[in-house]
Each structure stands twice: as structure tokens, then as C-alpha cells.
């Protein structure tokens, strides 16, 4: 396996720390994992090389950015149209995530918009006129839903 050796408990602890704060210093992580900062650096580089860590990113407060409405839209496609619908969905700026699913809907999409007018325009102006979309169902996400993170810490969605 070479550089793709198995992920061990120290790697998992590093990942957990970075999930909670991607800006954690190597020294801070080293203290928590009981390794040297250079070992932490090497492990992080290896995790990136083998594709476990894909990228470092930020967490945004979309409400403060002006997206006061977040909606999950379940889309059902006509047979044979999933690929073309997916290609079109990727081009819509309000679509922040697309999940290809099994079950009653082909896609769950996360949409963020400023107001109901923008949502209405998206649904009636774009989605309803997209060839291959058979059914559109919406579920509004409640703001600032509290949740338990994997590590047991409190957090916000």
C-alpha cells in the first residue's frame, strides 16, 4: 500500500480536530494527539495525498449573507432524464448542493435564496420549465437548528 497505509486512531483524531477547526495550528493538534508538529504535518499531507482530506474550507452563516430561506427540494425526473437534469441543476446559482438519491425522488437539492420571490422565480421560472422534471416538492429548513455533532459538541446547522 505504500503511502496509502491504513488510517489509524491518530489520523482519525487529527481529522476530528480539523473538522471542528480547520485553522488549528500544528502545535495545538500535536499536543492533543501526542505527536510532534512535524509528524502532524506529514500525516496531514499524507491524508491529502490519498484523498481523505479533499480540501480545507470555511463554514458560513448564510442568513447573514442574505439567504434568509433555505429549502430542500425533492425532484423526480422522467425516465431517462436524470443526467440532463443534473447537468442543468449544477448551473443554477441558488442550488448549493445536489444529492442523487434512491427512493421516491431522483434528487434532493439544497437551495438558498434571499426571499420568497426568488424561490418562486426559481421554481416556476426555471425548474418547472426544465425538460425531464416530473415532480417538485419543497421542504423549508428551520433557521438555526441545534444539533449534536459527531464528537458530542453542540453546534448549529
Overall description:
It is a single chain. The chain is α+β, with helices and mostly antiparallel strands and 157 residues long. The chain has 2 domains: 2-49, Arc Repressor Mutant, subunit A (Orthogonal Bundle), CATH 1.10.10; 69-140, Lrp/AsnC effector binding domain/regulation of amino acid metabolism (RAM) domain (Alpha-Beta Plaits), CATH 3.30.70.920. Helix content is 33%, strand content 23%. The chain contains 5 helices and 6 strands; from the N terminus they run H-H-H-E-H-E-E-H-E-E-E. The protein has helices at 9-20, 26-33, 37-49, 82-89, 116-126, and strands at residues 69-77, 95-100, 107-113, 133-140, 146-148, 154-156. The chain has a 4-stranded antiparallel β-sheet. Strands 5-6 form a two-stranded antiparallel sheet. A hairpin with a 6-residue loop joins strand 2 (95-100) and strand 3. Helix 2 crosses helix 3. The longest helix has 13 residues, at 37-49. The protein is elongated and about 55 Å long.
Helix content: 25-40%
Overall pLDDT level: 90
Name the CATH architecture of the largest domain. 2-Layer Sandwich
Number of self-contained structural domains: 2
Main CATH class of the largest domain: Alpha Beta
**Low-confidence sequence ranges:** none
Amino acid at each position: 500500500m505504500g503511502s496509502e497505509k491504513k488510517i489509524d486512531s491518530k489520523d482519525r483524531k487529527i481529522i476530528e480536530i480539523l473538522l471542528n477547526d480547520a485553522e488549528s495550528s500544528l502545535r495545538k493538534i500535536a499536543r492533543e494527539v501526542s505527536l510532534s508538529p512535524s509528524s502532524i504535518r506529514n500525516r496531514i499531507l499524507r491524508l491529502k495525498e490519498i484523498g481523505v482530506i479533499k480540501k480545507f474550507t470555511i463554514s458560513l452563516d448564510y442568513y447573514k449573507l442574505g439567504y434568509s430561506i433555505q429549502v430542500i427540494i425533492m425532484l423526480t425526473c422522467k425516465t431517462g432524464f436524470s443526467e440532463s437534469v443534473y447537468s442543468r441543476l449544477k448551473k443554477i446559482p441558488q442550488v448549493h448542493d445536489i444529492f442523487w438519491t434512491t427512493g421516491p425522488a431522483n434528487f434532493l437539492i439544497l437551495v438558498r435564496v434571499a426571499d420568497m420571490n426568488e424561490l418562486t422565480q426559481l421554481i416556476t421560472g426555471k425548474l418547472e420549465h426544465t425538460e425531464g422534471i416530473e415532480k417538485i416538492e419543497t421542504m423549508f429548513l428551520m433557521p438555526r437548528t441545534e444539533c449534536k455533532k459527531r464528537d458530542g459538541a453542540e453546534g448549529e446547522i
